[in-house]
Amino acid sequence: MTATEPTEKILPSPDYVQSLARGLAVIRCFDHQNQRRTLSDVARATDLTRATARRFLLTLVELGYVATDGSAFWLTPRVLELGYSYLSSLSLPEVAQPHLEKLSHKVHESSSVSILDGADIVYVARVPVSRIMTVGITIGTRLPAYATSMGRVLLAGLPDDELDAYLEKLDIQRLTERTITARDELKAAILAVRADGICVLDQELEAGLRSMAAPIRNASGLTVAAVNISTPAARYSLEDLHSDLIPSLRVTATDIEQDLATVNR
Q1: From the CB of residue 198, how many other CB atoms can be counted at a distance below 10 Å?
Q2: Secondary structure string (H, E, C) spanning 81-93
Q3: 72, 141, 177, 199: which could form a disulfide with 36 (CB 3.0–4.6 Å)?
Q4: Where are the alpha helices (DSSP H) in 127-245?
Q5: What is the model's pTM?
Q6: Closest by Cα among 186, 164, 166 to 175
Q7: CB 146 within 8 A of CB 170
Q8: What share of the chain is helix, strand, coil (3-state, %, to 5)?
Q9: Which is one Pfam family of this protein (predicted)?
Q10: In 3-state terms, what secondary structure has residue 32?
Q11: How many whole angstroms separate alpha carbon 23 and alpha carbon 62?
């Protein structure tokens, strides 16, 4: 089965603009694992001819969304403008930011808020204290939900059928020697988070990194986001996380929930 067969069986609507769809596919083929791509890479990833991929890339270069050194291409910060309208329409980032600043000031660690988008989490608010990951985290950064503390909190908030569908389609990669890769074990870990209301992740995303996350719920009790603290593994034992950091994390989650309820009345 070729990559184009599923779309060939479904007739697009009369309003479907194929060139726009192809242009967006070119943008989406860049991610945290493929930050720089050659023309051939982009053509393969999008199932376009080299000539077509080249036209889209050079158009995006001219518009300022992509940069190139003549052999490789990469996204520029301007691409964040495409999602800014959506993010800025949410009350969540504005509500969460001062609470994250207060939390980070208190515990002297980086803190973030993210939402679930497909199989990834997307960072929508963040206060970095120090860079402790090899990948720089900014607003709009996407990471695999299964290997992040916020991701597991958000997955724990899904209905059972949606969680099962997610796990069935999931392509699990071993990111470190500690990453859970067995589906049944991963589901058990997510259900434990659902029961505990907290997730502590010990070096599954990146060696030397520990993080803990709590859910942010709306007035109906549905999990709409997650808040976390991340820290170098050498700084706290797992026991110290529970005594020194998690109480402050829970308070922050509750404070954000209360403010969200107020602005959404």
Answers
A1: 21
A2: HHHHHHHHHCCHH
A3: 72
A4: 149-156, 160-169, 183-196, 238-240
A5: 0.69
A6: 186
A7: yes
A8: 50, 20, 30
A9: IclR_C
A10: coil
A11: 13
- Evaluate whether 212 touches 228 at the Cβ level (below 8 Å): yes
Instruction: List C-alpha distances in Å: 73 to 26, 29, 236.
Output: 11, 11, 40
Q: Which residues contact 130 (CB under 8 A, 6 or more apart)?
A: 110
Check if the beta carbon of residue 73 is closer than 8 Å to that of residue 42.
yes
CB 194 within 8 A of CB 215: no
Could you give phi then psi for residue 202, rounded to 5 degrees? -110, 90
Summarize pLDDT for 30-80 with one digit per residue, the tens: 987 889 999 999 999 999 999 999 999 999 999 999 999 999 999 998 887
What is the Cα Rg of the chain in Å?
20
Task: Tell me the two tokens of residue 20.
Answer: 């726009």
Assigned token pair, 183: 């589906």
Q: Show the tokens assigned to 218.
A: 């709306």
**Distance of alpha carbon 193 from alpha carbon 62, whole angstroms:** 46
| Other beta carbons less than 10 A from residue 253's beta carbon | 26
Which two structure tokens, joined as six digits, stand for 12? 């697009």
Q: Helices 183-196 and 149-156 sit at what angle, rounded to 10 degrees?
A: 80
**d(Cα 173, Cα 139) in Å, to the nearest integer?**
24
Among 46, 38, 37, 39, CA closest to 19:
46
**Dihedral (Cα; 139, 178, 110, 151), 10-degree rounding:** 40
The full set of domains in the chain, from first to last, is 16-79 (1.10.10.10), 89-262 (3.30.450.40)
Calculate mean pLDDT across residues 158-165: 95
